[in-house]
Design a protein that fits this description.
Layout (H helix, E strand, L loop, with lengths): L1 H34 L5 H23 L1 H16 L1 H12 L9 E3 L11 H15 L1 H5 L8 E5 L6 H12 L2 E6 L10 H15 L3 E6 L2 H4 L9 H14 L7 E7 L17 E4 L5 H12 L8 H7 L5 H17 L7 H13 L9 H18 L3 E2 L15 H22 L7 H17 L6 H18 L1 H14 L1 E2 L5
Parallel strand pairs: 2-5, 2-6, 3-4, 4-5
Antiparallel strand pairs: 1-3, 7-8
Helix pairs in contact: 1-2, 1-3, 4-8, 5-7, 8-10, 11-12, 11-13, 13-14, 15-16, 15-19, 16-17, 16-18
Bound molecules: adenosine-5'-diphosphate.
Keywords: ATP-binding, Cell cycle, Cell division, Hydrolase, Membrane, Nucleotide-binding, Protease, Transmembrane, Transmembrane helix
Family: Belongs to the AAA ATPase family.
GO cellular component, one term: plasma membrane
């Protein structure tokens, strides 16, 4: 929108100049015609000279339109965060900034992040805010200060954060959570202070804290060790700047449940983005990206089906290993044998990658299909937990329904495969915790064991009665790696 409006301003200026030049030209010709030989040489040349200068300037403005627009944009971005910037610069000067904390200019954009369309869309707002702060600030809208990316390793959390910085063309400050955990008390906290001071100094900017759980684990409340003082400093720093400072803090973790609740409170990391393992479509796009420009005979469609369970990073390693094999056999064309050899290497080598065979994929599909059937919500093949009913004052029935959602996967597999499988122990733990609350906290029931057994028996009856439906949903899951509400 701002680019368009800047273009419009420039176009208007150009038109005005061109029109003035034309009017002057007409006036000039008219005076020439009227005045004839009375015109004095000096004023004649002055007029001609002025006309040419005007036309020349108009032409330059038109030609350099893009450069000028960029300049205006940059100025606008910095001045929007101006007041805060001055303040933080003053604060920063009191700090010792002689650290190794440096920003990089990210050259990654969303184009380099294949697939995961929904996640990119979710983060576009952050990019837009950094690009055009005025659009939000004039309405008094503040964006979340912190965005936490939750997902397993290698799914592109760092890449996404870099792409946000790249899209917004702002400096990117990378720190891993572990780097804050120092041996000497107070050093970690000092590093956190310095990181934020530097970021504010360079605002608008993105701060990215990778594996934040290293520093952000729940505080025990008994000891006040180095890690806790570092976490306290992180909380203080996040409170210490306003949403209009132009600093957005992004963080990544694969264990959000171990994080201290204070970190996830409003005004800190209050936006959560889940980045799961890539689905079939995503894997196809990622493979296309990695094979782009390479001479190959690979059926990308088939390979994306055969790589269920691979993270994006694993796909990148797979193609790299396959290319190494191609070079080793002195060929110039990558083929499916290279991929097979690379796959075996990865499965049994040092960088073990979990590859799901057909049977494992079927079990996981029945497990997730049963959850989708019971909860009537969208479920993907690699989802680790399911959407729950969240009510401020949940009824007994709603609490039991949430236990059902936890246990549906296990019981579904047991009913369909006539055998118990060890899939996701977290389901059992969650069901147990909730049953415990029903019995011991809210005194809604007398016995936890009895409650859980009743729920399991209900589930067995409901799922075996609907076995055909579960099998139908399983087939959809096998094909699409997702079951949507339309499928249920
Ligand atoms: P995480 O931070 O989740 O552990 P990274 O961002 O470090 O994952 O990803 C590791 C590598 O995997 C990246 O450097 C990139 O090569 C590749 N990668 C991850 N996600 C994608 C994606 N969506 N598109 C293309 N490459 C990806």
């Amino acid at each position: 929108m701002s680019q368009n409006s800047d273009n419009k301003v420039l176009d208007k200026n150009f038109k005005l100049m061109a029109m003035s030049a034309v009017v002057l030209l007409i006036l000039f010709v008219y005076t020439l015609y009227k005045g004839g030989s009375h015109i004095e040489g000096g004023s004649y040349y002055l007029g001609i000279g002025f006309l040419f200068i005007l036309l020349f300037v108009a032409l330059i403005v038109k030609m350099k339109q893009d450069k000028l627009k960029e300049y205006f944009n940059k100025n606008k971005k910095n001045s929007a965060f101006g007041t805060q910037l001055e303040q933080s610069k003053a604060n920063a000067s009191n700090e010792d900034l002689n650290t190794n904390i440096h920003a990089v200019n990210s050259n990654v954009t969303f184009k380099d992040v294949a697939g995961i369309k929904e996640i990119k869309e979710e983060l576009e707002e952050v990019v837009d805010f950094l690009n055009e702060p005025q659009k939000y600030l004039k309405h008094g809208v503040k964006l979340p200060k912190g965005v936490i990316l939750v997902g397993p390793p290698g799914v592109g959390k760092t890449l996404i954060a870099r792409a946000v910085a790249g899209e917004a063309d702002v400096p990117f400050f990378y720190q891993s959570g572990a780097s804050f955990v120092q041996i000497y008390v107070g050093m970690g906290a000092k590093k956190v202070r310095e990181l934020f001071a530097k970021a504010k100094q360079n605002a608008p900017a993105i701060v990215f804290i990778d594996e934040i759980d290293a520093v952000g684990k729940k505080r025990s409340g008994t000891s006040n060790d180095e890690r806790e003082s570092t976490l306290n400093e992180l909380l203080t720093q996040m409170d210490g700047f306003e949403g209009d400072s132009g600093v957005i803090v992004m963080a990544a973790t694969n264990k959000v449940e171990v994080l201290d609740e204070a970190l996830l409170r409003a005004g800190r990391f209050d936006r959560r983005v889940h980045v799961g393992l890539p689905n079939i479509e995503d894997r196809k796009k990622i493979l296309e990206l990695y094979l782009d420009g390479k001479n190959h005979e690979i059926n990308i469609e088939q390979l994306s089906i055969d790589t269920t369970g691979f993270s994006s990073a694993a796909l990148s390693t797979l193609i790299n290993e396959a290319l190494l094999n191609m070079i080793k056999r002195k060929s110039k064309i990558l083929d499916s044998d290279d991929i097979e050899i690379a796959k075996n290497k990865l499965q049994f080598g040092k960088k073990q990658i979990k590859i799901l065979d057909e049977k494992q994929k079927e079990i996981l599909s029945i497990y997730q299909a049963s959850k989708a059937f019971i909860s009537k919500t969208k479920v993907s093949l690699f989802d680790e937990s399911i959407e729950k009913i969240s009510a401020t004052y949940p009824s007994y029935h709603e609490l039991c329904e949430n236990i059902k959602r936890d246990l549906a996967g296990f019981i579904g597999v047991e009913v369909i495969k006539k055998e118990k499988y060890a899939i996701n122990h977290k389901d059992l733990e969650d069901a147990d915790t909730l049953a415990d609350e029903i019995v011991n906290k809210y005194k809604m029931s007398n016995s936890k064991e009895e409650l859980l057994n009743n729920i399991k028996n209900d589930l067995r009856a409901e799922l075996s009665h609907n076995a055909d439906e579960i099998n139908r949903l399983k087939e959809i899951m096998l094909k699409n790696e997702v079951i949507t509400t339309n499928d249920i």
